[in-house]
Amino acid sequence: MSSSPFPKRNDLVVATVKSVEEHGVTVSLDEYDGLEAYIPRSHVASGRIKDIRDFVKEGDKVVGRVIRADKKLGQVDLSLRYVSETERREKLEEWKERNRVLSMLKLAAQRAGYQDADSVAREAYERLQAYYKNPLDALEDVIYEGPEPLIKAGVDEKLAEELKAIVEGQLKPPIYVKDLVVKVVSYASDGVERVRRILSRGLEASSGADVDIYAAGAPRYVISIRSRDPKVVKRAASSIIKAMEREVGASDHLELVEERERRKRT
């Protein structure tokens, strides 16, 4: 069962081209158990289309935007025109990550002795998706935290234990990134030097993480902290802010405006 039983209007979906005709293209939706969808000729590409096969061929993998979805009739229409290159690239990457996670979940289910490994894998994926924004984040957390993140998300303990061994063998830790957006102002006569010194104190307190500081339109600065160990990033962020606070004088002002966390996969 798909994590979303039927696509909704405006959703981005990954599809495989099944047949190409003069009036349009028939595709199967990879994330919806092969549900068929249709791409009208006018939505294959922008501008005049002389030969539709100049744009799509049987077997092509495409990303479309749902422009019509009738669950009752089981009919879905897509547009390729209404998908930007950035959206296409990001959706394909999301789809690849989904397949990777499902593959590891299925292998874990087989090793754990479940009879219907496919169903168990899909159910576990849905639980992870409900608990995490990205299920791959959950598997990466296992590298440092063991099976506990999976169990907290509702994955069966036996499956979580098998998955731990698989993850440790197949996944490389991502680079954890935390951006601290700070506002630093000094009203002292040597204010420029004071601001530089406050930022420098933060840089010196990086606690083993890689740290860059850059201006985001003075008086705002971004302190970007990176490590493959999330605990190092967390520790460095705390140390940096404390070190900067210790340097702040009576004529200075330091404010943590925003914190942003992300992961870079290499």
SSE arrangement:
Blueprint: E1 12-21, E2 24-29, E3 35-40, E4 61-70, E5 75-79, H1 85-111, H2 117-131, H3 135-145, H4 148-152, H5 157-170, E6 175-186, H6 191-204, E7 210-215, E8 220-227, H7 230-247, E9 252-264
Antiparallel strand pairs: 1-2, 1-4, 2-3, 4-5, 6-8, 6-9, 7-8
Description:
It is a single chain. The protein has 266 residues and is α+β, with helices and mostly antiparallel strands. It folds into three domains: 12-81, Nucleic acid-binding proteins (OB fold (Dihydrolipoamide Acetyltransferase, E2P), Beta Barrel); 86-170, Translation initiation factor 2, subunit 1, domain 2 (DNA polymerase, domain 1, Orthogonal Bundle), CATH 1.10.150; 175-264, EIF_2_alpha (Alpha-Beta Plaits). The protein has seven helices and nine strands; from the N terminus they run βββββαααααβαββαβ. A hairpin with a 4-residue loop joins strand 7 (210-215) and strand 8 (220-227). The protein is flat, with a radius of gyration of 25 Å. The protein starts with 11 loop residues before the first strand and ends with a strand. The mean pLDDT is 94.
